[in-house]
Amino acid sequence: LFLKLPSDSFKYLGWCDIEEHGVRGNQLHCPRVREGPSEEELFFRKEEHTLKKIKRATDTEKWERRLQENWENCAELNLSFQDLGDLYQVENFKRILRRLIRVEKLWLVDNSLTDLSAIKLPRCRELNVNKNHFTSFKQLPKIPQIQHLSLAENNIATLSGISDFRHTPLESLILKRNPCEFQERYRQLVFSSLPNLKILDGIPKLPEDCSPPDVRFFYRMCTIL
User: Fold this and answer.
1) CA dihedral in degrees (114, 119, 125, 130; nearest 10)?
2) How many domains does the structure of the chain reveal?
3) Could you give the percent of the chain with pLDDT greater than 90?
4) Is residue 222 part of a domain?
5) Hey, which residues does 127 pair with through a beta bridge?
6) Whole-number mean pLDDT of the chain?
7) For an engineered disulfide with 99, which of 4, 8, 38, 71 has Cβ 3.0 to 4.6 Å away?
8) Record's SUPFAM superfamilies (predicted)?
9) How far is it, in rounded angstroms, from Cα 220 to Cα 214?
10) Cα separations in angstroms, 32 against 51, 113, 177, 178
11) CA atoms within 13 A on the CB side of 125
């Protein structure tokens, strides 16, 4: 006979919903932030017994939760593998990202993300968004202080928009397993767009990565003595 364990009534609760603890968001390195199913979905699954632990929060409780989350003071955070299967979960995820005003290192691996262009991460120096669904550099968040950016295993087909990072302190960039990696003169094009870049796909800048002058340009020139 199948019997539900006592922990079943907590399996869809976030860490903020569990009473009598003082853990804050900036104390967690890899928090689970994906929200549980809606009331309708729980009823459809015949798991409405979990609703007794979920109560509608008052304005005071919402403010207390905001203070407990404390995302504004996170300096290093891993929000990878969140399994964001529903739109409301994606919106809640972006709500948290908008609060990361002091984060310096952020991992968002394998979250099926497609567009974070409305997000600003003013202090982020290291960002890992491997294994997502980005198709353009324009879909990345605003990261003016970025130094290390990893975009492996996305779907970026061209280098259009990469020059937007020219005025950032970007030192290393990973684009492995993106379609743009197969573009002719790929490394030369990246380094010419980002003259301050030191490492591409784990390989330091080599002499052959420096684009030579376009020979055709000299054929169009004449010398006047």
Assistant:
1) -10
2) 1
3) 57
4) no
5) 106, 149
6) 83
7) 71
8) L domain-like
9) 11
10) 19, 16, 28, 28
11) 4
Whose CA is closest to 111, among 87, 95, 94, 132? Answer: 132
Cβ atoms 158, 183 nearer than 8 A: yes
Q: Is 7 inside a domain boundary?
A: no
- CATH number for the domain spanning 151: value is 3.80.10.10
Find the distance separating the first CA and the last CA of the chain, reported in whole Å.
Answer: 100
Cβ contacts of 61 within 8 Å, gap of 6 or more = none
Q: Is residue 14 part of a domain?
A: no
Half-sphere exposure of 109 (CA within 13 A, CB side): 12
